[in-house]
Amino acid sequence: MGDFFNPEKGIWVWLSTLVDVVGLSVLWIFLCLPVVTVGPATAALYYTVVKCVRGRESGAFGDYLRSFRANLRVGLRATLIVIPLFLLLLGGYRIVLWYGTGLGGTAYILYVAYYFALVLPAGVLCWLFPLLGRFEYGVRGLFRTALQLTVAHLPTTVILVLLTFQAAIFCLNRWWPVVFVPVLAMLLASLFTERIFQKYSPELAAEEEKSEE
Question: Which of 38, 42, 67, 193 would be 47's cystine partner, CB 3.0–4.6 Å?
Fold first, then answer.
């Protein structure tokens, strides 16, 4: 019975994790509503998921808000670049989709080619804000590093793009997954990105070893 009432064991750990998953997802959605804050909100979500959901550290909501404030300036500027790029790619995709599926033949080949070509810019977007959440960058360095990781780790990039795409589709088709999918998607993404980050940052590797002890 003593373990049952111990807040660091048993069901209380699971309840605490559930509160973090739902609470962080809702907080992320709320802070994304102005649209231009999507970048710092996503960077803060990645940071907090790695530290508090994966790393089992306490104080998830305080860590999230501190990370959000720390990344606000660079994140806002990066988001203002990302938004028109995203809209341009989305518009091109819709045009090619309509043209390719409607006419077939060569047009369909064009659609498939454009679909695969999207992996590169979409990959940059998938790397961008996890990088901001874990490291300090200026805007130019942030985009340059995201592009380098996109190309250097292409298989991981494809996984991140597919994961992000499927999570977005799942939430758009049904409203209720938005209360947990953002954190779960970020958690799954971190399983791939953190291993790569640790290759380039001994400090992160040491931090991971310490959290596992």
Answer: 67
> Digits of tens for pLDDT over the chain (213 positions)?
445 444 555 576 778 888 999 999 999 999 999 999 999 999 999 999 999 999 888 889 999 999 999 999 999 999 999 999 888 887 877 776 676 555 556 666 776 777 778 889 999 999 999 999 999 999 999 999 999 999 999 999 999 999 998 999 898 888 888 999 999 999 999 999 999 999 888 776 556 555 545
Residue 55: inside a domain: yes
Query: Rounded CA gap, 178 and 140, in Å?
Result: 31
Q: Find the domain containing 175 and state its range.
A: 11-90+124-212
Model's pTM, two decimal places?
0.86
Instruction: Give how many domains the chain has, as a whole number.
Output: 1
Say if 62 falls within a structural domain.
yes
Q: Tell me the Ramachandran region of residue 10: left when phi exceeds 0, alpha when psi lies from -120 to 50, beta otherwise.
A: left
Does residue 96 form part of some domain?
no
Contacts of 126 (CB under 8 A, 6+ apart): 150, 157, 160, 161, 164, 189
Domain annotation covers residue 140: yes
